Amino acid sequence: MTKIQNFKMFINGEWLESSSGNKIETLNPETNEVWATVPEANEEDVNKAVEAAHNAFNGSWSKLHPKERAKFLRNIGNQLRENAEHLGKIETIDTGKLFKEIKSQAIYIAEYYDYYAGLADKVEGTVVPIDKPDMQVITTRIPIGVIAAIIPWNSQMLLTAVKLAPALAMGNTVIIKASELAPVTLLEFAKLIEKSGIPKGVVNVITGLGDPCGKALTTHNLIEKIAFTGGPETARHIIRNSAENLSQVSLELGGKSPVVLFNDADQENALNGIMAGIFAASGQSCIAGSRLYIQSKIYDEFLDKLVAKAEKIKLGAPMDPDTQMGPLNSFRQLENIEKNIKETIEQGGKLRCGGKRSSISNKGYYFPATIIECENHNLPTAENELFGPVLSVMKFDDEKSAIDQMNDNQYGLSSGIYTSNLGRAMRVSKAVRAGIVFVNTYRLISPSAPFGGIKDSGYGKEAGVESIKEFTRIKTTWFNTSEKPMTDPFTMG
User: If 0-12 CB within 10 Å is exposed, 13-18 middle and 19+ buried, where does residue 9 land?
Assistant: First the structure.
């Protein structure tokens, strides 16, 4: 067994243990062994972080010219590029995600900081055509204040960037709470924050459990906005907590994303897109295309191709460059996937490949690419978010039935459409109730493309110009341009 590493929190520019001395153990999903410990923050630690952020906001940070804040954002981006390999190795150990993918992602995530650095000094207000004589009214966007950013274990660098970058660009200060399931990556990222030269207290990174750490953070009276990514149940707790401080809330939640394949689609393109959508990152993505609807005419032919390709996916160690799919992040995920598969088969589902724990390791949380045919798209694997490499496949006859089935789910984050008919692509993309639609492609991101869902997939937008609105408030200012005094309010007529 390798030596267990100890990491500290980053609060007000200092590296601290928890005030209680308690620690959280984090497991390596490849070996199921403890490889690191992090502080278990309590209410006292949360207070330190929030007060540090509050003081930094009221100090110089919010008053800096946007061009000055932009310099720090670019510094963060450059640090990510320079340290992508190291950060990638840490995230691979902590989450089980493939090193080759994580490393390239870390480099690309730097673009988000560059994007918002470029936007920082380009946010404009408006002149309102007011209906009052001798009045000039303008609006400006101002920072909100102290932001609580709650980050899940998967896609940590991306889901941090889409919150942190626009928040900092607009003059806010931030407390990042890392997931207790894989907290080390963000503590390592905090070292890059420190190297960027950003003033103390502007960015703080804490680790802890939902209670007391998460609860203390989301109910704190100095927190003015909560930006959360995670599951719907936790989101409901956060919304209830936010009633204590009347903070703004934005939610990026789960998904059960439908993908529809029409008879006329380019099958090779669709095959690659569908595979990437559900089996990349071991299916541990909120936009995973986990519900597939295939039109009747090509159903058997295409499904056979899909099964054959899925069975060839190489499962293995996430650091191995030849590995195509690594382990799941936790044993809890593994058990939940097995439970849903068992129930689906009991209710008539037909297992086409996978479905059982891999024998590749006696310790790691390995699960193979799994495809299940479902007569009823409301069967457990087709209805529930599993966060794993499980694809539920259904048949449909016509466009209307495809749309009806795609929309028959509580989630509305992402969706995919494969067709060569432009008119059909436009009709279906308009009709499907999802915040993101991919047409003849899947699983793409960009700093300039807004990201977010509807229904139980949350509300608010991350990335793009739209997210600037999520981290600012509108201030309305009235100017009296008349040289005459205001009329006496108590004189009538």
Answer: buried
Q: What whole-number distance in Å separates Cα of residue 250 and Cα of residue 224?
A: 12
* Domains of the chain as residue ranges with CATH: 5-253+457-477 (3.40.605.10), 258-439 (3.40.309.10)
Tokens matching residue 444:
């793409």
Contact 234, 389 (CB under 8 A): no
Hey, what amino acid is at 99? Answer: F
Alpha-carbon distances of 290 from 135, 257, 318, 356, 385, rounded to whole Å: 56, 6, 22, 18, 8
Contact 276, 242 (CB under 8 A): no
Q: What CA–CA distances, in Å, run from 457 to 39, 256, 290, 460, 480?
A: 31, 9, 15, 10, 45
d(CA 19, CA 51): 15
Query: Which residues of the chain are modeled with pLDDT < 70?
Result: 1-2, 492-493
Specify the pLDDT at position 487. 87
Report the C-alpha gap between 122 and 66 in whole angstroms.
Answer: 9
For the annotated catalytic residues, the residue numbers are 252, 286
